[in-house]
Amino acid sequence: MTAVEIQCANCGGTNPPGARFCSSCGAALGDAVPPHEERKLVSVLFVDLVGSTARADKADPEDVRDVLQIYHREAKQCIEQYGGVLEKFIGDAVMAVFGAPVAHGDDAERAVRAGLRVLEGIERLNAEHQLDLAARAAVNTGEALVSLEHARTGGALATGDVVNTAARLQTAAPPGRLVVGIETYRATRNVIRYAELEPVSAKGKADAVAAWLAVETSAAPAGRPLSTTPLVGRDRELELLQSVWSRSVDDHRPHLVSLIGPPGIGKTRLCREISALVEESGGQTLRGRCLPYEEKAGYQSFSRVVRHACGILESDPPAVVRSKLEATVRELIPLDERAPTARHLLLLLGVASDDEVSNGRLRRKRPSRSSRSLKRRRRRSPRGWWRRSVHRLSIPRVSWTSPAVTRCLWRSLQPR
Asked: What is the CATH number of domain 37-217?
């Protein structure tokens, strides 16, 4: 549908310019207005199964349907987990749009991470369901014409050359891999590691399309390299933070500082400056993260803080996680509190043994006390760290987390 076509207010059908009555329902079009459309910067993700035609040849239709439903469900979950909009399934191909109707500051990164997650999910489906699926994906970023009204009536959410180019790049991707265009590469090269490919000769394109192969993620989700130029215009804020830190060290008591401001104002940079001050004075920075996408487990930011404090790596198996946590608990927690503290922190990290957990709770005679006990353990942990040495606890982007986490953070710093 073009911008000059008229949409019927009664049935939503489209009509050619100059029409007086709707060709679908006959309603008068005198008061109808063209649908609202706008140009937006979007990232388009295409995922397509490899060899699906040969796989479906002479196969039972119900078996083909069941396999596609499993694949579609996995792709939809991964795409929506990263804030994308699943526009349509085209047989065994999936198209998703990131940046419309809601735009984020990192839509290109979200699209690439979602595509990589879909490819990983297909490998997991192969292992779980004894399948032999293979897929390839591509992400392209650029301007598109976005129309929510058209999408609601079965049309395309985003139209433009960015969509066509993404589809062409997808056909050039190796099986099991993801390819991106030049704008996506520029927007994500600091968080995704790429290998440059030969330009792709795309159908309908006068010139070959530059392409890069996504190798692996090189930074945490929503991570950004910060500028190394001197910080200016924040002398007053730095002096205030230095005063709070000095008071915390002298009094051996924690203090809570909240940095509030719009995106891009420099909150993360200011946190890095105070972190450098803490480390210069012999302290240590413990950092949690509140992610805007991926898995959002309860108290996830606190579990990341515990992992940082105990030196636990993401690649550590559960047995190593338990040993590192128990060693840290023995160092920080009084003898009579070590066992229950370790049990609850193991539950927080998701590595409690099966005989200790029932329906997500520690086995207790009074399960209702488990939540209160867990909060007490988290409240005592910062004080244990403070007794050993001085620390700075940082949880950036706390606005992305749940109210329960902010309440627990506040209570952790209250006097006993």
From this structure: 3.30.70.1230
